[in-house]
Each structure stands twice: as structure tokens, then as C-alpha cells.
Amino acid sequence: MDFDVIVIGGGLGGLTAGAKLAREGKKVLLIEQHSQPGGCATSFRRGDFTLEVGLHEMDGPSVRDMKTRIFSELEVTGNIGFVRIPEFYHFTGQDTAITIPHNPEEAAGILKEAFPLEGKAIDAYFTRILNPKKKTPSQEASQDTSVGEFLDSITGNESLKLVLLGNLGYFHDDPYSLSLTYYSVAQGSYYGGAASFIKGGSQNLSDHLAAYIRNHGGEVLLNHLVTGITEHDGRLNGVTYRKKAGSSDEMTAYGRDIIANAAMENIAGFLPQKYGIDLKGQISKQKTGASLLTIYFGFKRNLKLIGNSHYSRFVFDDSVKSQKDVLTNNRDSFEKRSFTFIDYGQIDSGLAPAGKAVGALCCIDYLRDWENLSRQEYKTKKEEVAKTFISRLEKILPGIAGEIEYYEVGTPATVKRYTLNPAGAVYGFAQLPSKPVIDLSSMPANLHFASAWGKTGGGFSGAIYSGYLCAYNILRKSKL
Questions:
Q1: I want to staple 60 with a disulfide (CB 3.0 to 4.6 A). Which of 193, 373, 403, 418 is the partner?
Q2: How far apart are CA 111 and CA 290, in angstroms?
Q3: CATH at 156
């Protein structure tokens, strides 16, 4: 089989790249090892409930958001519904409880009311977040710093710092090792363009992009594993693959360009030896990001009936007294670990039948704590973790335990099984201030990368941008 482009992996980066290239007349083959496309942008059914795997909120789409153009081109607009999120997040920690809206002016006003002596610091924060590319001459000459160092430079009020770091888990596990430049762009997009949920779950977006590829002459193979990348006369010319289950017969597809929508470590193992060694050497200098633990809930009734009024609730344990405690807490016992609770019943999510609701509890987690367990030990630990968090939720929202009709625990091992990401990482490489640049100039010119592991980083937007820019560059080169 001959194709213009072969895409390894069906996450949002690969789907976006494949759809854009198919739109422009390229013959595309996308190969995905899972039974459905999307990577972390998926959902699954359990009885009455559609359980959302990864999306809490996606920044935008807004007028200045590149996704607006992308969604228009790929006919997402008009076919996929987006529901606006009513608030950015509600934070609780120690003696602080505060709701932060998406509107930056309103958010700054609320913060100044709560912290009347910190007006200068709050203004400095929003100036930096909303203008990430505007730097003073002295800043231009200096290296990137961490979010933690930046917050320390503008205020000594630890309670304010923790509130501002409420949704840190969207990006990383430690403010002192998260790039301020990366954070500013990502966080600023939430404040600058609000946020949305994909109605019916993110699987709808992934399915749409896969169908778009097929409807424009491409192929999408699910339940197939790529086993290698082939080379002929010094040029990559295709991939080998096989069915994930059943027949072990290996097949080959040939393509002029190959897009890697997978972890770079995995791609390094597919490449001819000389390229694989080079890529492994480069990524050895990178730090793999953290993973997540998620408990998915189906509720008998809408939680508004027991008094919940918040869509996203970020709960910091009382042991977190300063931002220096954040990383330690993320590695603490589940009795103390900070978490996020999302109540999809606060919006018209399309995830549950009338009268019922879906929710999710999520915290930073690490694969090392779930490896090397027997099947029974793994199952027992998941149940213990679920009971721990349900008990903690009950203290915050009395009566919630009695409203649970169904729950299921997803661990970093679950993430690794369905995405093949090393360490079950959900955001790709950690976005460190000193993150080394991966020089791909030594790689074959027809190998391209489109995923959370690339330049644009993780999250839904990062993956979508990565895929679109990858396709754009392939199209540009084809015209030279």
C-alpha cells in the first residue's frame, strides 16, 4: 500500500495532522493501537453514563485562538458542540475558599478583595500571564525562570501563591520546576479566551477528525500496532505493523512522509539503528512529566441537589502551607494528596441522562507506585484509593457518597496501557525552565513529530496545534 503520509498514533496531534493533510488532497494512513481514536481525548460508556477520560476544560475556542481557524477548516465548527465553563476554578486550602472566574479583570478584582494588601503582586501576575511575549530588555537577556521563582519575586503571601497555583495540575507537579514562559502562554489562554467542554465528551471530537480523514480519501486503522519504520536508500519509506490481537502477521505500508504522533522514546525504538540511537541520546536529557490518577463517577442525581455549585473544585490539603509543599504533597499518601473534583452536572455536558450526572476526581500520580503489583494487589489498592477519596469528598459535600451509582479508578498504569506513553505521562516531557531543545536536524527530513512530546507541549490545545503545524510544514515543503 502506498500513501502520501503515514501517521503513527491517533491522538489529537495525529488526528489533526491527518485531517488537515487529507483536506489538502494527501492520501493519509493513520495507525492507532487502541480500539478508538483520540489518545487521552476519549470517553467510555458504563451503563447510563459516558465517562470523560481526560477533558476538564479546553481553553477557548475564542476569536484570537488558532483552534478557531483549525476547527473551521476541519468542519468541527457546526458539527461538534462546545459548552462554556461557568468558572475557571474554585479553590479551597487551609482557611481560604475562593472562586476564580475566567475573566482576568474580574479575577483580579476578586483576588484583591480577598488579599487587599497584595494589589501590586496581583497586577504583576496578570501582566505577566496576559502578556507572555512582552519582556523587558533585562528579561530578554536572562534565561527562563520557574513559576515558583516568579511568584516568590512578586509576593511573600503564600496563601495568594497557592490560590494562583490552583490548577497547577493542568501542567506539572511542581511550581519550582515549571517553565514560567510555558505556563504564561498556557494559563493566559484560559484567562484570555475562557474555556469550553466538548458536549458529549471529547470522543466526539476525536471521532469527527477520524471520520474527516476517511471522508477525504484516507484510512484509519484501529487496533493495529506499528512495529517499525523502514528505510530505503537512506530515506524512511514506510512502516511495519500488525493487528494488536489475533494474527501476528506483519504488514508494510509505504509513505513519502511519516508523522510520529507518539512518545519520542517509542519512535526511537522503531527507527533504523543510527537514527534511533541519536534520538534516544537526545531524549535522555529530557524529564518525563507526571501522570494522573482519576476516579470516574456516575451519580444517581444532579449534585446541585446536595448543594454543589462549582464545576471545578481544587482542594489543597491543609499540609500544603506554601508552594514549597506542593511537590511533597503530590507524592504524599492519598489521605493528604491535593485533588481536583469536576462536576459535569453543572453544565449541559451530554454525559448523563436527565436527572443523573457524571463527575471525576483527579490528582497527580506516578507510575512507579503502581508497578510490580500483582493483579489482586493492584485491584485492592484501587479500591482503597477510591474509598479514601470518597470519604474526603463526603466531608466537603455531605451526602455525595450516597449519590454514587458507579465508580471506576484509572491509574498511571491505565494511562500507559491505552496510550503507550512512558511512565503513563499525560503531558509529554516536563516543561522545565532549562528544558533542552531537541535538535531534529539529524533525523530524516521526511520524519515529522506531532504530539504532546513536541515543541507545543501537552494538553488538548498543545496537541492540536502540534498536529496542525506539522501538517502545514509538510504542505509547505511539498511546494518547494
A1: 193
A2: 29
A3: 3.90.660
pLDDT at residue 480, as a whole number: 55
- Residue 107, SS3? helix
C-alpha to C-alpha distance for 180 and 432, rounded to whole angstroms: 9
pLDDT of residue 139: 46
* Measured CA distances, 199 to 203, 283, 296, 320, 457 (Å): 10, 37, 17, 35, 24
Distances (CA, A) of 227 to 134, 153, 248, 270, 308: 45, 49, 11, 6, 48
Q: Mark whether 337 and 213 lie in a shared domain.
A: no
pLDDT score at 221: 97
Residue 312 sits in the same domain as residue 277: no
Give me the pLDDT at residue 33, please: 96
User: Which of the residues in the chain have pLDDT under 70?
Assistant: 133-142, 480
Under 8 Å between Cβ of 206 and 80: no
How many domains, the chain?
2
pLDDT of amino acid 315: 98
Global model pTM greater than 0.90: yes
Instruction: Look at the alpha carbons of 326, 331, 334, 340 in this order and tell me if their dihedral is positive or negative.
Output: positive
| Helix (H), strand (E), coil (C) string for 51-105 | EECCCCCEECCCCCCHHHHHHHHCCCECCECEEECCCCEEEEECCEEEEECCCHH
Measure Cα distances from 214 to 8, 70, 219 in Å.
Answer: 16, 18, 5
The Cα–Cα gap between 403 and 307 comes to: 12
- For 249, phi then psi, to 5°, come to -60, 130
Q: What is the C-alpha to C-alpha distance for residues 3 and 178, in angstroms, rounded to an integer?
A: 40
- Cα gap 13→7, rounded to integer Å: 10
What pLDDT does 234 receive?
83
CA-to-CA separations, 439 to 174, 221, 261, 449, in angstroms, rounded: 26, 30, 17, 12
CB 58 within 8 A of CB 195: yes
Helical packing angle, 180-193 and 147-154, nearest 10°: 80
| pLDDT for position 134 | 52
CA distance 349 to 335: 30
Return the CATH number at 217.
3.50.50.60
pLDDT of residue 246: 78
Query: What distances in angstroms separate CA 409 from CA 99, 170, 317, 329, 377, one per listed residue?
Result: 28, 19, 21, 20, 14
Residue 232 burial by Cβ neighbours in a 10 Å radius (0-12, 13-18, 19+):
exposed
71 domain residue, yes or no? no
Tell me: do 249 and 338 sit in the same domain: no
Cα angle: 126, vertex 129, 130; to 5 degrees: 80
Strand partners, 445: none
Residue 113 belongs to domain spanning: 89-198+291-365+371-410
Using the structure block, give the residue that is written with the C-alpha cell 444532579. Answer: 302
